[in-house]
Each structure stands twice: as structure tokens, then as C-alpha cells.
Here is the input.
Amino acid sequence: MGLFTRDIKTMEDLFTHQLRDIYYAEKQIVKSLPDMIEKASDPQLKQGFQTHLRETENHVKRLDQVFQLTGQKAQGVDCPAIDGILKEAKEVAGEVDKKTVLDAALIAAAQAVEHYEMTRYGTLIAWAKQLGYNDVATLLNQTLEEEKATDKKLTSVAESQVNRKAA
Ligand SMILES: [Fe+2]
Ligand SMILES: [Fe+2]
Here is the structure.
């Protein structure tokens, strides 16, 4: 379903489209995190990525539940935004030589991912409530809280140690 093929007629359609978009995004993030775990040197950062990989796998499962609750087949749709963020992350990481600087770059990339997710979930929750999908809103909010907590953790790892070691 493309944005410009006029397949989106109702708010329900728009909700489903955005659900498919984040479903694809979460799956791409699951694929990308192992590489980030491997590249991270700071033990707390590595650990943080590992924890978030498990959480992200669970985000996919929650979305499966959301599709079920809204009577939709679980399916993704290409999301050029997340592809771009992940591609850039990979490119920048590939150009950083020093391990301490690489950690700072990985955090910056990961926070771009978290913020993308936060904006998508924020919108989906508002739309779910408007459409009367209160159970769905509750599920999506659990994920949003984990994205926010991850973002905060990344800020704290950056500001407490990684940025100083990199500078
Ligand atoms: Fe997520
Ligand atoms: Fe995330």
C-alpha cells in the first residue's frame, strides 16, 4: 500500500498503514542491533544494546497482537525513513576508526532510531484512542515507555562516560 496510490481512504486505513510501517521498522532494528552490539566497546553500552534487542523482539510481538486485535493480517510496508537512519548509522560507523569515538557515533545513531520510534508510537497511540482501540493504545504505550527509557539510558551512558572518553 503506497502513500500515493490513494489506497488510504479512512483514518482506519491510515492507522493500519502506520502500523505496517513501524512493524517493518522494528524488524529492521532487530536485524541491525546485533551489528551495533558487536561494534560497541563500552560494556554498559554493549549491555544496553543487548537489553534493547530483547525489548525490540518483544515490540514486534506486541505489534503482532495489535494486528490481531484490529482484525488485520500482520504485515510490513517499506519504511524508507528507518532504512535511511540505519543506512546512515552503518556508513558513519564504518568510517570511525577509534573505538571510543565509535561508541559516541553508535549512541548518536541509536538515539535517532529511538526518536523515530517515539514519534511513530506517539501518533499511533493518539490514533488508536481516537478510533476506540483502547487495548491497542495500552499495548503501544508499553513499547513507547521502553523506547523513552532506552533513549534516556543512552543519554546517560553518553554523558557519564562515552563522550568524555571519545573527546
Ligand atoms: Fe522498538
Ligand atoms: Fe527502540
Notes: The first helix runs from residue 11 to 39. The pocket of fe (ii) ion (ligand 1) is lined by residues 26, 56, 59, 117, 143, 147 (CB under 6 Å). The helical segments are 11-39, 43-69, 80-95, 99-130, 134-166.
